[in-house]
Design brief:
- The complex is a heterodimer of chains A (about 290) and B (about 250).
- Chain A has helices at about 5-40, 50, 65-95, 100-115, 120-130, 140-165, 165-175, 180-210, 210-215, 235-245, 250-285; strands spanning about 55, 60.
- Chain A is an all-alpha fold.
- Chain A has a single domain, classed as MetI-like fold (Orthogonal Bundle).
- The longest helix of chain A is centred in the first third of the chain and has 37 residues, at about 5-40.
- Chain A is globular, with a radius of gyration of 24 Å.
- The mean pLDDT of chain A is about 90.
- Chain B has about 250 residues and is α/β, with parallel strands linked by helices.
- Chain B has one domain (about 5-250): P-loop containing nucleotide triphosphate hydrolases (Rossmann fold, 3-Layer(aba) Sandwich).
- In chain B, the strands form two sheets. In chain B, strands 6-7-8-3-9-10 form a six-stranded mixed sheet, sandwiched between helices.
- Classes of the chains: A mainly alpha (about 290), B alpha/beta (about 250).
């Protein structure tokens, strides 16, 4: 058999690369398609009134203001509940623990939690926060449920952030006679906090887009007012969209509102991720070690 | 200055998991003098150094046998206070590792954690530590700037000053100049001479010439064993061990 010429080899290589490039392109196309489709369908109902007014006439008119507020409240509440536990657990895992049974068990637990379907979190939240703790269908129950769901992400982004702090900083501190505790507080955490917060923002972006965890725990289909306390139920964009599409008497009026709501939700989620990624980039550039 | 600072190593061995790194070392580091420990990479010299302030405790699976006595007390006793020990035995690492804080806060770190001083006295001690490493003149107008802005050589002197500020009696240096340019390295070598009579200095180096220049006593390690130890002049002119002779002549290293 004759040895293939170098032009032939180049051709084969080019054909191969073309397949990979196409695969990469499909990802961009999918993203562009979603953004284009949602924008073109949703833009029609988008207006100042739509963003700032409560819904009217059984969802067929008016805006989604309470749902936007509710989405932010749930996301914020989820982070406030998940961050302290997540960061403390991550500090334990990276700074204080020695490899052993307990640590393996915790890691298995974190991974299992990460793989749990979101509807399971929803049911758990209903059984535990809503019923057992008696918090009712409320912002609080929903935020805690979303927080539980976000824990594995918070733990892993915090661990990543802690691991980027060079070992040599810890050594310097310990060699001066500092305790591990002091070292963590004064040297490790201050240098990891930026990474932890940006990670939390990304996690929040994912949490606010979730529907299943809030269906039974926090969300209401229709209310014209904002929650007065953490124990009130609340509207939220994902569940609002779900309701508009599956319930109600005037689907032809509701569907455009659903697309408008979806567009807003998409903008919120993408802005949160965009902000998180941008901030992380800034931190990495500013990093001096 | 505290008139103590003796380090005696007695039948000391150390294993990482099951891998022996230091084997049955016996020696007394002369107090308030400079001692160099030489040897090829992986000979256990850094491990021995890190045993003296118990920095090996951080590594999982480390086992030790024998004793290291600091002013007559075994630092591996179960009741030993490692935080006080590490204040009294300062350490400087191969790569300069200032904290990403201001120059002032770097030096003040040890003083603050051990509550040695505060307020005006703290500032005074920070400045005196910086002047002890001949860095004060170079940085006096930017004590509140980040230590990361300094050059590598300045950073390493800062790290020495940071260790000195905690008022140690012993200073351990783990190849402190190997990451530096020759001029910066020379400054540090000269600096070490100023510590003679004040501090027990132990410097680990794979640079034979450096040991000859700076140290009054030298030891040579090989495969975890201290094969030779004595006054540097004797060791260099008349090594007792053939391995030492080969190493000093650059036959391996």
């Amino acid at each position: 058999m004759p040895e293939p010429t170098s032009t032939n080899r180049l051709k084969t290589q080019r054909r191969g690369f073309a397949v990979f490039t196409a695969a990469a392109l499909i990802i961009l196309l999918a993203l562009a398609a979603i953004i284009f489709f949602m924008s073109s369908r949703g833009i029609k109902v988008l207006s100042w009134e739509f963003i700032t007014q409560p819904p009217k006439k059984g969802m067929t008119e008016g805006g989604v203001f309470p749902a936007i507020v509710g989405t932010f409240l749930l996301g914020l509440g989820a982070m406030l509940s998940a961050l302290p536990i997540g960061v403390l657990a991550a500090v334990y895992l990276t700074e204080f623990s020695r490899p052993g049974r307990f640590v393996s068990l915790v890691r298995i637990g974190v991974n299992t939690l990460a793989g749990m379907p979101s509807i399971v979190f929803g049911l758990f939240g209903f059984a535990f926060f809503v019923k057992a703790l008696g918090l009712g269908v409320s912002v609080l129950s929903g935020a805690l449920t979303l927080g539980a769901m976000s824990l594995p992400i918070i733990i892993s982004v915090s661990e990543e952030a802690l691991k980027t702090v060079p070992m040599t900083f810890r050594e310097a501190s310990l060699s001066l006679g500092a305790t591990r505790w002091r070292t963590t507080l004064k040297v490790v955490l201050p240098n990891a906090v930026g990474g932890i917060i940006t990670g939390a923002i990304l996690a929040m972006g994912r949490a606010v887009g979730e529907t299943a965890p809030i269906i039974f725990t926090a969300a209401t289909f229709y209310t014209r007012r904002l929650p007065a306390s953490p124990f009130d139920e609340v509207m939220a964009l994902p569940f609002h969209i779900y309701g508009l599409v599956t319930e109600g008497l005037y689907p032809e009026k509701q569907l455009p509102i659903a697309f408008g709501s979806a567009l807003i939700l998409m903008i919120i989620v993408l802005s949160l991720s965009g902000f998180g990624i941008f901030w992380r980039y800034k931190i990495r550039k500013r990093r001096v070690w | 200055m505290n008139p103590s600072g003796t380090i005696e190593v007695e039948n000391f061995s150390l294993c990482y998991s099951d891998k022996p790194a230091v084997k049955d070392v016996n020696l007394r580091f002369p107090e308030r003098k400079i001692t160099a420990v030489m040897g090829p990479s992986g000979c256990g010299k850094s491990t021995l150094l890190r045993s003296i302030n118990r920095m090996n405790d951080l590594i999982a699976g480390v086992k030790t046998r024998g004793k290291i006595l600091f002013d007559g007390e075994n630092i591996y006793d179960s009741g030993a206070d490692i935080y006080r020990l590490r204040r009294r035995i300062g350490m400087v690492f191969q790569k300069p590792n200032p904290f990403p804080m201001t120059i002032f806060d770097n030096i003040a770190y040890g003083i603050r954690i051990h509550k040695l001083a505060k307020g005006a006295e703290l500032s005074r001690r920070v400045e005196s530590a910086l002047s002890a490493v001949n860095l004060l003149d170079e940085v006096s107008d930017r004590l509140n700037r980040s230590a990361m802005e300094l050059s590598g050589g300045q950073q390493q002197r800062l790290c020495i000053a940071r260790a000195l500020a905690a008022e140690p009696e012993v200073l351990l240096l783990d190849e402190p100049t190997s990451a530096l340019d020759p001029i910066s390295a020379d400054k540090i070598e000269c600096l070490l001479q100023e510590f003679v009579g004040k501090l027990t200095v132990i410097i680990v180096t794979h640079n034979v010439a450096q040991a000859a220049r700076v140290a009054e006593y030298s030891g040579f390690m090989m495969l975890g064993e201290m094969v030779d130890f004595g006054p540097t002049k004797e060791l260099f002119t008349n090594p007792k061990n053939r391995l030492t002779e080969c190493y000093l002549n650059g036959k391996f290293g």
